[in-house]
Amino acid sequence: MKLSRLNKMLAGIVIIFAGIGLFLGSLNIIDFNLFRLWPLIFLYFGMKQWEKNRRVVGGVLSALGIIFIFNEWFHINVFQLVITILLVYFGYRMIRSHKAPQEDDPPPEIGTSIMEEQEVPPPPPRRPFTEAPNPRQIIRPKESRSVLIGDFHLTSGRFELENMHIWHGIGDIVVDLSRAVIQEQESFLVINGWIGDITIYVPVDLPVAVSAEVTIGDLEVLNHRQGGLNRQIVMRSENYDQASRKVKLNISLIVGDVDVKYI
After folding, report:
1. Can you give the residue ranges of every domain in the chain?
2. What is the pLDDT of residues 180-189, one digit of tens each?
3. What value does the mean pLDDT take over residues 211-228?
4. Which of 89, 79, 255, 86 is nearest to 171 (CA)?
5. What angle do CA 137, 62, 147 make, to 5 degrees?
Protein backbone atom coordinates (compact mmCIF):
# COMPACT_ATOMS: atom_id res chain seq x y z
CA MET A 1 0.00 0.00 0.00
CA LYS A 2 1.41 3.37 -1.02
CA LEU A 3 1.29 6.18 1.51
CA SER A 4 0.19 9.65 0.48
CA ARG A 5 2.48 12.61 0.94
CA LEU A 6 0.50 13.72 4.00
CA ASN A 7 0.69 10.28 5.62
CA LYS A 8 4.43 10.10 5.03
CA MET A 9 4.89 13.55 6.54
CA LEU A 10 2.80 12.69 9.60
CA ALA A 11 4.61 9.38 10.06
CA GLY A 12 7.92 11.23 9.93
CA ILE A 13 6.68 13.76 12.50
CA VAL A 14 5.57 10.98 14.86
CA ILE A 15 8.93 9.22 14.56
CA ILE A 16 10.84 12.47 15.18
CA PHE A 17 8.72 13.37 18.21
CA ALA A 18 9.03 9.84 19.59
CA GLY A 19 12.80 9.87 19.20
CA ILE A 20 13.19 13.33 20.77
CA GLY A 21 10.80 12.43 23.58
CA LEU A 22 12.56 9.17 24.42
CA PHE A 23 15.93 10.92 24.34
CA LEU A 24 14.80 13.74 26.67
CA GLY A 25 13.07 11.19 28.89
CA SER A 26 16.25 9.15 29.22
CA LEU A 27 18.01 12.33 30.42
CA ASN A 28 15.19 12.93 32.94
CA ILE A 29 14.48 16.29 31.32
CA ILE A 30 10.83 15.41 30.66
CA ASP A 31 8.56 12.57 31.72
CA PHE A 32 7.89 10.76 28.45
CA ASN A 33 6.84 7.36 27.15
CA LEU A 34 5.28 6.09 23.93
CA PHE A 35 1.79 6.16 25.42
CA ARG A 36 2.05 9.94 25.68
CA LEU A 37 1.96 10.29 21.90
CA TRP A 38 -1.85 10.34 21.97
CA PRO A 39 -2.10 14.14 21.21
CA LEU A 40 -0.72 13.36 17.75
CA ILE A 41 -4.03 11.59 16.99
CA PHE A 42 -5.79 14.99 17.03
CA LEU A 43 -3.04 16.47 14.88
CA TYR A 44 -3.30 13.60 12.39
CA PHE A 45 -7.07 13.80 11.92
CA GLY A 46 -6.90 17.59 11.83
CA MET A 47 -4.44 17.54 8.94
CA LYS A 48 -6.51 14.87 7.19
CA GLN A 49 -9.57 17.14 7.38
CA TRP A 50 -7.42 20.05 6.20
CA GLU A 51 -6.36 18.04 3.17
CA LYS A 52 -10.06 17.53 2.35
CA ASN A 53 -10.59 21.34 2.43
CA ARG A 54 -12.55 21.12 5.68
CA ARG A 55 -10.75 24.12 7.15
CA VAL A 56 -12.81 24.67 10.29
CA VAL A 57 -12.79 21.07 11.54
CA GLY A 58 -9.16 20.58 10.52
CA GLY A 59 -8.05 23.78 12.20
CA VAL A 60 -9.88 22.97 15.45
CA LEU A 61 -8.50 19.43 15.65
CA SER A 62 -4.97 20.57 14.79
CA ALA A 63 -5.13 23.36 17.39
CA LEU A 64 -6.34 20.89 20.04
CA GLY A 65 -3.49 18.54 19.15
CA ILE A 66 -0.90 21.31 19.54
CA ILE A 67 -2.45 22.42 22.85
CA PHE A 68 -2.43 18.86 24.20
CA ILE A 69 1.19 18.37 23.08
CA PHE A 70 2.39 21.44 24.99
CA ASN A 71 0.29 20.59 28.02
CA GLU A 72 1.05 16.86 28.14
CA TRP A 73 4.73 16.85 27.21
CA PHE A 74 6.09 20.19 28.39
CA HIS A 75 3.47 21.18 31.03
CA ILE A 76 2.98 24.54 29.32
CA ASN A 77 -0.38 26.30 29.58
CA VAL A 78 -0.95 27.30 25.97
CA PHE A 79 -3.84 29.62 26.73
CA GLN A 80 -1.71 31.72 29.06
CA LEU A 81 1.10 31.66 26.51
CA VAL A 82 -1.21 32.91 23.73
CA ILE A 83 -2.65 35.66 25.93
CA THR A 84 0.88 36.73 26.88
CA ILE A 85 1.96 36.88 23.23
CA LEU A 86 -1.14 38.88 22.28
CA LEU A 87 -0.59 41.38 25.10
CA VAL A 88 3.07 41.84 24.16
CA TYR A 89 2.20 42.24 20.48
CA PHE A 90 -0.61 44.72 21.17
CA GLY A 91 1.65 46.76 23.46
CA TYR A 92 4.36 46.77 20.81
CA ARG A 93 1.89 47.97 18.19
CA MET A 94 0.81 50.83 20.46
CA ILE A 95 4.43 51.87 21.03
CA ARG A 96 5.29 51.67 17.34
CA SER A 97 2.22 53.66 16.31
CA HIS A 98 3.30 56.54 18.57
CA LYS A 99 4.95 59.17 16.41
CA ALA A 100 7.08 61.95 17.77
CA PRO A 101 6.10 65.46 16.63
CA GLN A 102 8.07 66.63 13.64
CA GLU A 103 10.28 69.64 14.12
CA ASP A 104 10.05 72.63 11.81
CA ASP A 105 12.80 73.09 9.26
CA PRO A 106 15.53 75.42 10.62
CA PRO A 107 15.86 78.82 8.91
CA PRO A 108 18.73 79.22 6.45
CA GLU A 109 21.94 80.66 7.81
CA ILE A 110 22.92 84.24 6.97
CA GLY A 111 25.00 84.44 3.85
CA THR A 112 23.74 81.23 2.32
CA SER A 113 21.77 81.31 -0.90
CA ILE A 114 18.19 80.16 -0.99
CA MET A 115 17.23 78.04 -4.00
CA GLU A 116 14.27 79.13 -6.04
CA GLU A 117 11.12 77.19 -5.44
CA GLN A 118 10.23 74.81 -8.21
CA GLU A 119 6.74 73.82 -9.12
CA VAL A 120 5.95 70.31 -7.93
CA PRO A 121 3.38 68.47 -10.03
CA PRO A 122 0.31 67.58 -7.98
CA PRO A 123 -0.16 63.91 -7.08
CA PRO A 124 -2.56 61.88 -9.21
CA PRO A 125 -6.18 62.40 -8.13
CA ARG A 126 -7.53 59.80 -5.81
CA ARG A 127 -10.95 58.40 -6.38
CA PRO A 128 -13.59 59.45 -3.86
CA PHE A 129 -15.11 56.71 -1.79
CA THR A 130 -18.53 56.01 -0.36
CA GLU A 131 -19.77 53.32 1.95
CA ALA A 132 -20.59 50.00 0.32
CA PRO A 133 -24.23 48.92 0.69
CA ASN A 134 -23.68 45.15 0.97
CA PRO A 135 -20.35 44.35 2.69
CA ARG A 136 -21.50 40.83 3.62
CA GLN A 137 -22.20 39.64 0.11
CA ILE A 138 -21.52 35.92 -0.28
CA ILE A 139 -18.60 35.22 -2.61
CA ARG A 140 -17.78 31.84 -4.08
CA PRO A 141 -14.05 31.86 -4.89
CA LYS A 142 -12.85 29.89 -7.90
CA GLU A 143 -9.21 29.76 -6.77
CA SER A 144 -8.01 29.08 -3.23
CA ARG A 145 -4.51 29.49 -1.83
CA SER A 146 -3.62 28.66 1.77
CA VAL A 147 -0.47 28.94 3.88
CA LEU A 148 -0.35 27.90 7.54
CA ILE A 149 2.98 29.49 8.57
CA GLY A 150 5.14 31.87 6.52
CA ASP A 151 4.79 34.91 4.27
CA PHE A 152 2.67 35.01 1.11
CA HIS A 153 3.51 37.52 -1.65
CA LEU A 154 1.87 38.21 -5.01
CA THR A 155 4.17 41.01 -6.15
CA SER A 156 6.74 39.78 -8.66
CA GLY A 157 4.97 38.03 -11.55
CA ARG A 158 1.68 38.42 -13.38
CA PHE A 159 -1.35 36.57 -12.04
CA GLU A 160 -4.97 36.32 -13.14
CA LEU A 161 -7.55 37.67 -10.72
CA GLU A 162 -11.17 36.62 -11.04
CA ASN A 163 -12.42 35.01 -7.83
CA MET A 164 -9.50 34.34 -5.48
CA HIS A 165 -9.51 33.29 -1.83
CA ILE A 166 -6.31 33.48 0.26
CA TRP A 167 -6.26 31.86 3.70
CA HIS A 168 -3.25 32.49 5.92
CA GLY A 169 -2.40 31.31 9.43
CA ILE A 170 0.67 33.11 10.75
CA GLY A 171 2.75 35.52 8.66
CA ASP A 172 2.43 38.50 6.31
CA ILE A 173 0.43 38.81 3.09
CA VAL A 174 1.36 41.28 0.33
CA VAL A 175 -0.68 41.56 -2.89
CA ASP A 176 0.09 44.03 -5.69
CA LEU A 177 -3.02 44.46 -7.84
CA SER A 178 -0.99 46.28 -10.49
CA ARG A 179 0.47 42.85 -11.33
CA ALA A 180 -2.99 41.28 -11.73
CA VAL A 181 -4.65 40.50 -15.03
CA ILE A 182 -8.24 41.70 -14.47
CA GLN A 183 -11.03 41.04 -16.95
CA GLU A 184 -13.80 43.46 -17.90
CA GLN A 185 -16.02 42.33 -15.04
CA GLU A 186 -16.30 42.42 -11.26
CA SER A 187 -13.46 40.39 -9.71
CA PHE A 188 -13.21 39.26 -6.10
CA LEU A 189 -10.29 38.90 -3.69
CA VAL A 190 -11.03 37.39 -0.26
CA ILE A 191 -8.26 37.28 2.35
CA ASN A 192 -8.60 35.65 5.78
CA GLY A 193 -5.73 35.53 8.27
CA TRP A 194 -4.98 34.77 11.90
CA ILE A 195 -1.81 36.62 12.93
CA GLY A 196 0.31 38.96 10.78
CA ASP A 197 0.05 41.99 8.51
CA ILE A 198 -1.93 42.28 5.26
CA THR A 199 -0.86 44.85 2.64
CA ILE A 200 -2.73 45.44 -0.62
CA TYR A 201 -1.42 47.81 -3.32
CA VAL A 202 -4.17 49.26 -5.54
CA PRO A 203 -3.58 51.11 -8.86
CA VAL A 204 -5.02 54.60 -8.68
CA ASP A 205 -7.19 54.03 -11.79
CA LEU A 206 -8.75 50.76 -10.54
CA PRO A 207 -12.24 51.06 -8.96
CA VAL A 208 -12.42 48.97 -5.79
CA ALA A 209 -14.88 48.15 -3.03
CA VAL A 210 -13.23 47.32 0.29
CA SER A 211 -14.60 45.60 3.37
CA ALA A 212 -11.83 45.16 5.97
CA GLU A 213 -12.02 44.11 9.60
CA VAL A 214 -9.49 43.29 12.30
CA THR A 215 -10.04 42.06 15.86
CA ILE A 216 -6.80 43.39 17.41
CA GLY A 217 -4.70 45.84 15.41
CA ASP A 218 -4.83 48.78 13.01
CA LEU A 219 -6.79 49.37 9.82
CA GLU A 220 -5.69 51.81 7.12
CA VAL A 221 -7.73 51.72 3.93
CA LEU A 222 -6.84 54.40 1.38
CA ASN A 223 -5.91 56.99 4.04
CA HIS A 224 -8.86 56.10 6.29
CA ARG A 225 -7.35 54.85 9.55
CA GLN A 226 -8.72 53.07 12.63
CA GLY A 227 -6.98 51.31 15.49
CA GLY A 228 -7.89 49.31 18.56
CA LEU A 229 -10.26 46.38 19.02
CA ASN A 230 -12.91 45.02 16.63
CA ARG A 231 -12.38 47.63 13.91
CA GLN A 232 -14.04 47.62 10.48
CA ILE A 233 -13.89 49.86 7.41
CA VAL A 234 -16.31 49.52 4.48
CA MET A 235 -15.95 51.79 1.46
CA ARG A 236 -15.99 51.79 -2.34
CA SER A 237 -15.14 53.98 -5.32
CA GLU A 238 -17.77 56.51 -6.31
CA ASN A 239 -17.96 55.14 -9.87
CA TYR A 240 -17.74 51.50 -8.79
CA ASP A 241 -21.24 50.53 -10.01
CA GLN A 242 -20.68 52.04 -13.47
CA ALA A 243 -17.20 50.56 -13.99
CA SER A 244 -16.90 47.36 -16.03
CA ARG A 245 -13.43 46.46 -14.70
CA LYS A 246 -13.39 46.52 -10.89
CA VAL A 247 -12.31 44.54 -7.83
CA LYS A 248 -14.10 43.80 -4.57
CA LEU A 249 -11.82 43.20 -1.56
CA ASN A 250 -12.99 41.33 1.55
CA ILE A 251 -10.28 41.25 4.24
CA SER A 252 -10.53 39.68 7.69
CA LEU A 253 -7.70 39.44 10.24
CA ILE A 254 -7.60 38.44 13.90
CA VAL A 255 -4.32 40.01 15.11
CA GLY A 256 -2.19 42.42 13.07
CA ASP A 257 -2.46 45.37 10.69
CA VAL A 258 -4.38 45.78 7.44
CA ASP A 259 -3.10 48.36 4.95
CA VAL A 260 -4.76 49.05 1.58
CA LYS A 261 -2.92 51.82 -0.25
CA TYR A 262 -2.67 53.45 -3.68
CA ILE A 263 0.39 53.11 -5.88
Report:
1. 5-76, 129-262
2. 999 888 999 9
3. 88
4. 255
5. 55
